[in-house]
Amino acid sequence: MRESLSHHALRGVMWSAVERFSVQGIQFVLSIVIARLVLPSEYGLIAMLGIFLAIAQTFVDSGFSNALIQKKDRTEVDYSTVFYFNIGISILVYGILYMAAPAIGQFYEESLLETICRWLGLSLILNSFTLVQRTRLIIASDFKTLAKASLISVILSGALGVYSAWLGYGVWALVAQSLSNSLLNMILLWCLVAWVPKKVFSLYSFRRLFSFGSKLLVGALLHTIYLNLYTLVIGRFFNSTQVGYFNRSQTFAVFPSSNLTEIVNRAMYPALCDRQGDEEALIQTFFKYLRATTFLVFPLMIGLAVLSEPLIEVLLTDKWSSSAPLLSILCVAYMWYPVMVFNWQLLNVKGRSDLSLRAEILKKIAAFLILFLSIAWGMEVVCWGLLLYSISDMIIIFFFVRKIYSFNLTQEFVTLFPILMCALLMGCGVYVASSFIAGSLLKLIFGILVGILSYLIFGILFKLEEFDLVKQIIKRT
């Protein structure tokens, strides 16, 4: 557990972080700026379309990206086959979305959604032109190139979105930001990645990749539906303002956990695939990545839960204050995201997408039951239901992981326990210290400083080995 990660892996994680946060981080900041210029109801309109656009994008990917990464003997024919399939399926899916737009508007009783849906749907076609380029860069761990393309496109599109919101275009500022980001990213990746598809489409290659990717597709569809089902159901039973509150709180809660997890996961998955034949080395690498991620995620999520009220008031103004209680609950629910994702990925590393699909089906059955039982009790109960789902998710996925790996759930919990305790003690310290401070801005600043200092102290007392890993990253990169 104490041997260092390779220099190549460390650089992969670093540039994966740069690329991820250049997209999500800057977009997150820009979304805060735009949120101050538009109404919660206008944000709610975009959120209502989230499930339809996310499902459509999942079909466009169809699990081929992971299939290409997992396949060791991949060829140019494989890449070209996936490229042409993705473009074809994106056009088909957009056509279906275009025709379904009036029905979507009627479902939510918001006529404007018909036009918004048809414009936002164009990003599906634009994104399909970049899937292979992204996959090739991930396989090569060339996150630096991904970072360049993402950073430029997100800054330019974000500037357009902010300017449009400032001019008073409301929801259309969000549409312009999304579409311009997809367009710029496509142009930049084609300029930066020296790859041109061959004029070939192989049915043999397609069948081999689809046999693995199709199971991931079904699992991804279930997960995508689940992630967006809350907005769909809330949008059907509540108004767009309440959808806006839930969407903003969920966005804040998901941001640190999801992005840090995906940063590490993109570097971890190829590394674990390379160790398929050596289970001991694979498990050791898995635990290192898991600890390194939770070392950052746990304190961030607990700190965010404690400081949710001053954070919302400072960043989004009082008009968004109703989302603060929801944010606190969701932070506790989403702090377990890396544990869920990394354990699920262990099944795919061994090529057992059949088990990952079975696990996903069981998890989503539990998720749907929890949602429909909690929706009648109000928004806060719905958020508590998300925490209950996180616990059930971990139990279900580990049941399947145990079928093909030798370690048990107790080992994993013992490994993460010191990190969890440090984060909880830090949260208690922040709560007590900030309660004596008046004013949202001062409370937020003081709480952050106390959180950082106390986590460092508790980390040293508990002798967390991740402090050594942080030193490695700083020195080597």
What does this structure look like?
- By secondary structure, the chain is mainly α.
- It has 2 domains: 38-230, no CATH class; 238-477, no CATH class.
- The protein is built from 21 helices and no strands.
- The protein has helices spanning 7-37, 40-48, 50-61, 64-70, 76-108, 112-120, 122-128, 131-139, 143-166, 171-192, 203-237, 240-273, 279-306, 308-316, 324-334, 337-349, 353-374, 379-404, 409-434, 440-461, 466-476.
- Helix 3 packs antiparallel against helix 11 (203-237), helix 12 packs parallel to helix 15 and helix 13 (279-306) runs antiparallel to helix 16.
- It is globular.
Distance between the termini: 21 Å
Total count of strands: 0
Looking at the structure, what is the overall shape? globular
Tell me the major beta sheet: none
Helix and strand string, N-terminal first? HHHHHHHHHHHHHHHHHHHHH
The computed structural class is: mainly alpha
Low-confidence stretches: 1-5
Beta-strand percentage?
Answer: under 5%
The tally of helices reads 21
| Oligomer description | single chain
Radius of gyration: 22 Å
| Domains (count) | 2
Helix content: over 70%
Mean pLDDT: 79
